[in-house]
Structures are given as C-alpha cells and as structure tokens.
Amino acid sequence: MNAFFSRTLGLLTWLTLCASVSAADIKVFSTVGVQAALEELTPQFEKTSGHQLQITWATAAVLVKRIQAGETADVLVLTQQSLDAMIKEGKAQAGSNRNFSNSGMAVVVKQGAPKVDISTPEAYKQTLLNAKAIAYSNPAFGGASGVFFAKTLEQMGIAQAIQAKAKFPPASGNAAQLVVNGEADLAVQQEPEVLAVKGVDLMGPPPGAFNNITVYAAGVGVNTPVEGPAKALIEFLQSPQAGAVYLTRGLKPAPR
C-alpha cells in the first residue's frame, strides 16, 4: 500500500504542477542514454500538460561541455554523476535533481547471426578476442559506456588487441547501427541505446563486474524562466506511466 500511495502522490503532484502554470516551451538537454524512452514519453507529457519540449540530444559528457561553455537549458537530463557536477558548478539548481531511471550495458549481434558466449568473464574475453570488429562508444567522447568498456579491456589485458579492430559511431551515434550495417560483429553499449536499433539480437549484459549501471537524473537549470513547467516535467519522469515505458526500453524506474 505504501508504494501505491507513493506513486499516486507523485502523479497528483505532477498534475498539480501542470495545472498551476501556463503552457510553456521547455528547453531540454538530454543524454542519448534515455532518448528512446523520452521520445515515446514526450507526446504524453505535451498532451497532458500543454507544454512543449524542445530537446537537444547528445552524450552527457558533450552536454556538460556545452553547459560549461555558457549554453543553458530549462531541464538537464544527464547521468547522476554529470548532474551532480553541474549543481556543484552552479549550472543547475541545488535540490531540484531527481533520479528517475537506471540501466546497464548490453552486448548485441546482428539479427539472425550466431549467438556469442558472454556467460562468464573468460567467455566474454574470448568472444571479444574472436570478433573481427567490435563497435562501442569512443572513450574520447566521454560517454559512460565507452569509458567503462575501455577500462574493462585494460583490466582484461586485451586493450591493444581490441583497439586494432574497434569501430566507433559518431559522437551521438549508436554502436548497434554499425552491427546492422555489417561494419562490426558485435556492439557493447548502454542497453536502452542498442535496443533502440532495429535489426539486432540482444545477447545480454556483460558478466559481473564488467557491467556498469548508469543512473539517470533530471534537474532544473539555473535562471530558467519556466521553473514550474520544468519541475512538472521532472515529476512526470518519475511517474508510474513513465516507469512503464522505461521497462520496455531497457531501463528500470528509480524508486521514489
């Protein structure tokens, strides 16, 4: 019953925020890690609230650099770590940040291709070594999955071997697309991102410590002229209907 009342209270809070403010355009900076889910949720939020979302997509690392360079947004949808950094730097309102979902990494191959064994650390290592080409986010771009995967390769002692056959998507691109195009045998990236690409088969998460859980959070930008609508969006991202969409997109709702 406590969980039910908590969800109901969250929904009522969101509806109250929507009803208490005039329709507004909300500028959003969002990480591509939740792009598929947020694109599905946007029409629901806009129809119910009357507000319109103007979303800029990029990796959290790229968005942080743009904010640090002087760009602003009404709502920042980033990794928890990135949003915490923006709050410390005075780029997001302290106390406005809310965790709303999380996800792990996933390995995919082209649809219909033979399955690969990633059931144990040793099997995972051998699968990576056997692949002719591997797609993952370029660590130089600062994306969470790419940085973590690069560290994984170092820990395994195969970084140099994999570097020779690494395939990187564009800064805001998707590693799974390179698998579909035939440029790579497999891709390793955040699960919501690879699941958004048609034409791949999910092999599952990397085993044990080789998987990285990313927590996604939203916060209000400083000096926003639409603080009420911005808070309404953040409440919506924590709502039961949003949580239902997360589950279909490789994400898990964060507990309220």
Keywords:
256 residues, alpha/beta, D-Maltodextrin-Binding Protein, domain 2, 5-stranded mixed sheet, 11 helices, 11 strands, elongated
Report on this model:
Helix content is 43%, strand content 21%. It is of the alpha/beta class and 256 residues long. It folds into two domains: 2-102 and 214-253, D-Maltodextrin-Binding Protein, domain 2, CATH 3.40.190.10; 105-210, D-Maltodextrin-Binding Protein, domain 2, CATH 3.40.190.10. The strands form two sheets. The chain has a six-stranded mixed β-sheet. It has a five-stranded mixed β-sheet with strand order 7-6-8-5-9. The longest helix has 18 residues, at 2-19.
The CATH topology label of the largest domain is D-Maltodextrin-Binding Protein, domain 2
CATH homology-level superfamily of the largest domain: Periplasmic binding protein-like II
Q: Compute the number of strand runs.
A: 11
Helical run tally = 11
Mean pLDDT: 92
Number of domains: 2
| Spatial ordering of strands, largest sheet | 2-1-3-10-4-11
Strand content: 15-25%
Structural class determined from secondary elements: alpha/beta
Shape: elongated
What is the first-to-last residue Cα distance? 14 Å
What is the CATH domain class of the largest domain? Alpha Beta
Largest sheet descriptor: 6 strands, mixed
Radius of gyration: 19 Å
Helix content: 40-55%
| Unreliable sequence segments | none
CATH architecture of the largest domain: 3-Layer(aba) Sandwich
Order of helices and strands: HEHEHEHEEHEHHEHEHEEHHE
